[in-house]
Design goal:
Blueprint lengths: L16 H25 L3 H25 L4 H26 L5 H24 L7 H4 L3 E2 L3 H8 L1 H8 L21 H16 L3 E2 L12 H17 L1 H34 L7
Antiparallel strand pairs: 1-2
Helix pairs in contact: 1-2, 1-3, 2-3, 2-6, 3-4, 3-6, 4-8, 6-8, 7-10, 9-10
């Protein structure tokens, strides 16, 4: 008489393809940032910048795809933070050091470290507050400090200007007699990099996409504007990136004013009502 065969147990579980898609995009963004460093080592500056910009685009969609597929996880959040630190902290710092700051090895390296550390601290602060629903700026729809991808884009502003005013760039009325090497000055680049690193870790309230709510009457115009910006990125990427940086910097005081109004409304709501007679 043979012994009865054991009943089949549950099959070993695994990650579904749906859950892996956002993490795969995050890994691709990490690879883009590292590839930007590789291009910088070989002196291909434009490709290095575009690699980091591509990492920013991938970083902007991985979280939205995770929410769309309902595939959020703690692992994905930690992977995203680590990828951001490499792609938007370490990669820009090394690219700018190899491009300009190595002419002043000591001061230039300290400027690169300041930016990289600022990005790491900004991401650490974001992770520490990710579960704090009552954080004042977060509850009002603002961010605290400049986001890491935006900080990387701002850090490259001297390189954008250097490219459009370089010897290979066509002469324009806007830049008739500008020496492109001015924007490669290590003192200028180092000071700018430290300033952007300060913006990363600052307590300044910054606008989010949720705060940009165009009126119903101009929504079609806003859609057309986004389409034109996308076309401009393909035809004139460097001028478009310069314009985006200028607009973002101009919006920083606007965010401070708007958040000041929110704070005043909160303070007025928290005041006790005057006693009735």
């Amino acid at each position: 008489m043979t012994a009865p065969s054991p009943e089949p147990g549950p099959l070993p579980g695994g990650l579904t393809l749906r859950a892996m898609v956002p993490n795969a995009i995050t890994a691709a963004a990490l690879c883009m940032g590292l590839t930007g460093i590789r291009f910088a080592v070989t002196g291909e500056w434009e490709k290095a910048i575009l690699a980091v910009v591509a990492a920013g685009v991938l970083d902007g969609i991985d979280g939205r795809i995770a929410r769309l597929l309902k595939a959020q996880s703690r692992f994905g959040a930690e992977l995203d933070s680590l990828a951001d630190n490499v792609s938007f902290g370490v990669a820009p710092a090394l690219i700018l050091f190899l491009w300009s700051l190595q002419d002043l090895p000591r001061l230039g390296w300290f400027a690169a470290l300041a930016f990289a550390i600022g990005c790491a601290l900004r991401l650490a602060r974001f992770n520490a507050r990710i579960d704090m629903a009552d954080e004042p700026r977060k509850a009002a729809g603002f961010l605290t400090g400049v986001p890491a991808p935006v900080g990387a884009g701002l850090a490259f502003l001297p390189m954008y200007l250097w490219i459009v005013t370089g010897s290979g760039a066509p002469a324009t009325a806007a830049w008739p007699a500008v020496d492109s090497e001015v924007f490669r000055n290590p003192l200028l680049v180092g000071g700018w990099l430290v300033f952007v690193g300060f913006l990363l870790i600052s307590a300044l309230p910054t606008l989010t996409w949720g705060k940009l709510r165009p009126r119903r009457a101009v929504r079609l115009e806003v859609l057309a504007l986004f389409g034109l910006v996308a076309a401009a990125l393909l035809t004139e990427p460097w001028w478009t990136l310069i314009a985006i940086c200028a607009v973002y910097l101009a919006l920083l005081p606007v965010a401070i004013i708007l958040y000041g109004r929110v704070r005043r409304r909160r303070a007025a709501a928290a005041e006790p009502a005057p006693p009735t007679a």
